Amino acid sequence: MSKRFVRSVSILILLSFVLTSFSQTSNVAQKRYNRLVIRNAMLIDGSGKPALGPFDVVVTNDVISEIASLDPVAVKEGTAKRPEKGEVEIDATGKYVMPGLINLHGHTQDERGGVPQPVEYCTKMWLACGITTVRDVGATKKTLEWKEKSAKNELPAPRIFAYGMFLGVKTLEEARPKVRELKQAGFDGIKLFGVDRDIMEAMEDEAHKLGMRVAHHTGVEETNTWDDIRFGTTSIEHWYGIPDAAIESGRQNFPSNYNYNNEVDRFRYAGRLWREANWDKLMKVFDAMIEAKVAWDPTLDIYEASRDLQRAQSNPAFAEFLHPVLEEYFKPNPSNHGSYFIGWTSTDEAFWKENYRIWMKAVLEFERRGGLIGAGEDAGFIYQMYGFGLIRELELHQEAGFHPLKVIQHVTSNNAKILGQEDKIGRIRVGFKADLIVVNGNPLENFKVLYPTGIEEIRDGKVYKTGGVEWTIKDGIPFHAPTLVKEIKEMVAKARAAKK
Q1: Would you put residue 454 in left (φ > 0), alpha (ψ -120 to 50) or beta?
Q2: 36 beta partners
Q3: Distance between CA atoms of 38 and 87, rounded to whole angstroms?
Q4: What are the pLDDT digits (tens) for 98-145?
Q5: Has this prediction a pTM greater than 0.85?
Q6: Residues 386/130, Cβ–Cβ less than 8 Å
Q7: Which residues pair with 213 in a beta bridge?
């Protein structure tokens, strides 16, 4: 047999394998299987303990049914005792497997500023970034439809927990009926904005009776975190209300011409809030929050543009991933919430940089004292794209001083606990829902490996493109992230071409 013949056969076999692999990638995505096996993975299980492996992870329908520890030497020699073959197999050699990311502060959006934008743009961005569950804290009846379609796998989207908005209530008598209306409509929880104290008390009491959790976006209102503590709020979103509760005078020192409804005023002076909080009083607030089991979802990413506007506006990922409808919404415009950068100055940025230093120190201290920290993005506003915002949130938690293992715990098992789902999602554990991501790289070394843009590495003097989530498995259903990325880019390019 000639060497040329052997070489030709080898090439044909290799080509056949490549084509089969490509075909399998295209065919296996977005279906649930009786048995799916992830082979030879390093696991970060979401509990906060170090990574370990290798393991084979078996998924039966929508549940993790087996986690088999493997002897690395036996794996290398081919003598390891391994779980039986699955209908679909994913090779995770050299990759890390984590619980699917949970986005605690998301907004499922099919428009921006009244202009239509495909909801699939939002949901596919989330899946491509490894997000398997979203708590939508701006949910509408339309969100309930998307939630049902996601559960039936009729819409490529993460699992949705829909929190209806407590809006339009002007009197105490309207508070309890509004809560019952939200419950009857099918919402999982309630998003509360700033309201008067008596209305908040009645609303929270009724919500607890009906088993509904409450996410509170405190504004500059009559209430602050002491009211969240008294009335039993589940989680405080962002951070208004926390430093307010620790100001000696009881109210931030606003100038006489301040107008809260003018967002330039609002966000300018929000950047000077943390400096006015008394640290000793803040510790009393924290201890009371912890005792009352009030969690904190800081959403560090969503205000980052306030401390460095040029960085936010020049994100390289915008070139291929920013939908033109969202791009237009981001432009300074008083009509669009969060598009407040009109006359933004270096002085504003300096105050916000200090604000972040104190804020991050406070978030770190809250957990050190025993508090529960979550992670959410609030994307679709202020130069943050869906999914990208949550990964940036992880980077900012690390900047605040948290170990990467703790950061991953925030976005997985901590978030599951805040949702009341800690016995179902947020961990790689037998009996839990099969929400998993397979990552090309080690997120404990570099959270940037989670971005769909990937990263570049130098090996043997050469630059290699790597990184990115390879598979997002939601509820036992595998989504091939690179395919989603391709579809997103095509969607964005088509929308831009149509705009010209």
Answers
A1: left
A2: 59, 88
A3: 11
A4: 999 999 999 999 999 999 999 999 999 999 999 999 999 999 999 999
A5: yes
A6: no
A7: 189
Q: Are residues 22 and 136 in the same domain?
A: no
pLDDT at residue 9, as a whole number: 38
Residues 6 or more apart whose CB falls under 8 angstroms from that of 40 comprise 53, 54, 55, 56, 70, 75, 91, 92, 93
Question: Between β-strands 477-480 and 96-99, what pairing exists: parallel, antiparallel or unpaired?
Answer: unpaired
The count of residues in the chain is 500
Check the CA dihedral 152-129-429-296 and report its sign.
negative
Query: Cα-flanking dihedrals φ and ψ of residue 383, to 5°?
Result: 65, 20
* Chain centroid, CA 419 distance in Å: 13
Residue 8 has a pLDDT of: 43
Helix (H) or strand (E) holding 211: none
Task: Tell me what pLDDT residue 72 has.
Answer: 83
Strands 96-99 and 36-43 come out as parallel
CA triplet 460, 463, 469: central angle to 5 degrees?
115
Considering the domain architecture, whether residues 115 and 208 belong to the same structural domain is answered as: yes
Residue 100: DSSP 8-state: P
How far is Cα 322 from Cα 319, in angstroms, rounded to an integer?
7
pLDDT of residue 25: 55
Give the pLDDT confidence score for residue 351 in this predicted structure. 98
Coil, helix or strand for 23? helix
Number of structural domains the chain divides into: 2
Q: For residue 54, is the peptide bond before it cis, meaning its omega torsion is within 30 degrees of 0? A: yes
Q: What is the pLDDT of residues 51-105, one digit of tens each?
A: 999 999 999 999 999 999 998 888 788 888 899 999 999 999 999 999 999 999 9
Domain, as residue range, for 176: 99-419
Residue 27 confidence (pLDDT): 65
Question: Can you tell me the distance from the alpha carbon of 163 to that of 147, in angstroms, rounded to the nearest whole number?
Answer: 11
What pLDDT is recorded for position 16? 38
Max distance between CA atoms of the chain, in angstroms, equals 93
Tokens for 245, please give them: 């509760």
Name 91's bridge partners: 39
User: Which of 367, 387, 419 delimits the end of a domain?
Assistant: 419
Helices (H) and strands (E) in the chain, counts: 17, 19
Question: Does some domain include residue 40?
Answer: no
Q: Which regions in the chain score pLDDT beneath 70?
A: 1-27
